[in-house]
């Protein structure tokens, strides 16, 4: 499976994976003297579930932040849909069809689930301030269209019963799901999930895994995720990037990664 | 097309009723379902079109007359349509419990030999696929929600909307067949097959004919004046006979609208939005709703709480009388009107009961306090007694004659007969045809004249003619002096007290009754805390003299109410003790569904029973217990036995 053609490959369960969607070329990211990411290259293909794993402090979240445009690497290039991406603001990246969830939930606690998910549609709203203020014409029409998309997401993630509940009152597992809903409402081409299962019990993890697979299957969304639960990673993902101390130490299918000596050393520890 | 003047005899099947509704009530709403946050609705004409398209699709798929078509899912219009479409094709719908596991499903699907299965989603598809090897007749599966099913092998799997589309496309080809099949239906053809829940042994398939369903629906609709324009919320399991009668039988007969919730979790919110005028719920749901209201009121401000308490006290006093049309003073009427404005109206609105004209509860005994709470708010909540085998209705309460301890008078068209041991037999147009592929059970239950044994014991109350259910017939015994002994009847009365968790009453073949009591640790513990009573364990709290005193008061109240029943006055409790441990399924004293295993309790605590009858004041006992991890231990205790005052049965009895 290492000799993938430009046209993609077929996964074990028979899904057709497309060409390269996003390519990271020799990325290096520094914070002062600290090198968070050192010369890393990998790609994400259309329709793929791509996991980034590694021990704590390996630079996984930094990598995700580079993809989402929050950090700008000092060296290296980010190619998206075959074009080199200039340094962009995160909202510009979002407009290109990249949405994300956060490791520490970042929702508006005082707003209802519905309103929170509606904020995910922000990049799709184009009506002017005046029109929005007087609630007429284009603004009204847009609201209806966007609400329709949001309702489909709510239905998809089975959160109908908490539609009108303020987020602050929800348990942790549901908040995670609402965050996913908000990201999905943006109808992203690439969905970035930062530890979607952290702090969940087994049942919630199963539900979340199911949703991730369904999102990928139903909408064809490409997914890049960071996750610590190895069982989840190995079951969900098509290919895995392994990072340690800012360097890439492994890349391949779950089976390849599992048998990679460097990866085993990084996780089990070895005298450096 | 059916003429308005057509005699009811033309309405001899559900599809025939649908055809009438589609022309007569064409623009009235027939089904509503909340989807994507909006109530979608279908008129009768639209529903008829959807159902016909589906039936044509079924024919296209090869559904034959006499085939069985299983339906597995929560209440959704598409499932109701599937059942009616199956009937149109001459097939027999079999709704299944959606939460059944694959093994239970395999039994039912295998037993009826379902060739077609209509399911909700991937979860159900997976279950059926898991067991399909065992199902020899199974051929095609139709699903509603395509999510996650894209990669499945679709040679035997079809999407609902595709079946309908194919049906529409093949209209010319199959229309004549459909008309012929539909015309062949009559009152004696099978309408539906429902499986009993099978608490004892394997589930049995109850075959109900069009006559059973339609005549029963007609009678019961007339009994409660159900009409076009009524609204019901369909949320109870589709495999349960009640849902079939309410959401298909009565809905088709009267043309009222069936509303389906968005998801099981949103049921309460949807109930509130729809405001049904005809509502059914088991006692458990009423109990949960009442508890949530009470808990929220505890958190309310002083003024609001005071207002609530004042008006609820008033409602308890005059509410039920107002509902029954009994005389109430003008002053109380005025106050009740004010209460309606301040408390009752808003509360009913929150609960979703603003428009309830007819409400029913059934299935098990409902606590009088819960029952009275709803009645006092002006909600016409009634009780009924029924069975799958009777197409639900055996007895029900007419408006204005409602009480918490009876199940009402025999339903219209139902004859009831009582055996010597109190067992209830009935005969009606709704009486089931047979148990499918089980002639022995059919013969055991239904005799040649059509009388069906319910297995329940009861009696008719003198004066009112109301039926009262006392117990399962096999548990009802005789006392030494020949009086009726109905332990469950007494135990239920005891368990309505929040302080009493379980009660076991003894007395069969003896001269008087005695009881074991389990206190409810939460309720009594709460009380102890408020009264500064310290305790270290269940056992210590149970033996506290004040707890004994409270329980004694409860039992004396129960005795008083039992004494009013001439038939059961012998069941009054003479002596009781509070057990030193809670009856537990781990120790085999209860079933996993928390029903007391009388026999095991009797054997295990025989020393305590002896003490209850030999007059000793205290008893020393040791009991083996099993911990959750399987280890065994023992508790010993010194228990107090206490006598309770009994009420001498009224003179009236002696005179008889």
General description of the model:
The complex is a heterodimer of chains A (272) and B (656). Chain A is α/β, with parallel strands linked by helices and 272 residues long. Chain A has two domains: 1-97 and 189-272, Rossmann fold (3-Layer(aba) Sandwich); 107-187, no CATH class. Chain A is built from ten helices and twelve strands. Chain A has helices at residues 60-67, 90-95, 113-119, 129-134, 138-156, 172-185, 202-219, 230-236, 254-258, 261-268; strands spanning 9-10, 16-17, 20-31, 34-45, 49-53, 75-80, 83-84, 98-101, 190-194, 222-226, 239-244, 247-252. In chain A, the strands form three sheets. Chain A has a six-stranded mixed beta sheet, with helices on both faces. In chain A, a hairpin with a 2-residue loop joins strand 6 and strand 7. In chain A, helix 3 runs parallel beside helix 6 and helix 5 crosses helix 6. The relative contact order of chain A is 0.17. In chain B, the strands form seven sheets. Chain B has a five-stranded parallel beta sheet, sandwiched between helices. Chain B has a five-stranded mixed beta sheet with strand order 12-13-14-15-16. Chain B has a five-stranded mixed beta sheet with strand order 24-25-26-28-27, with helices on both faces. The model of chain B is unreliable at 1-8 and 651-656 (pLDDT under 50). With 656 residues, chain B is α/β, with parallel strands linked by helices. In chain B, 43% of the residues are buried. The chains are: A alpha/beta (272), B alpha/beta (656). The A-B interface holds A 13-15, 147-148, 151-152, 154-156, 158, 160-161, 163, 210, 213-214, 217-218 and B 35-38, 147-148, 150-151, 262-263, 265-266, 269.
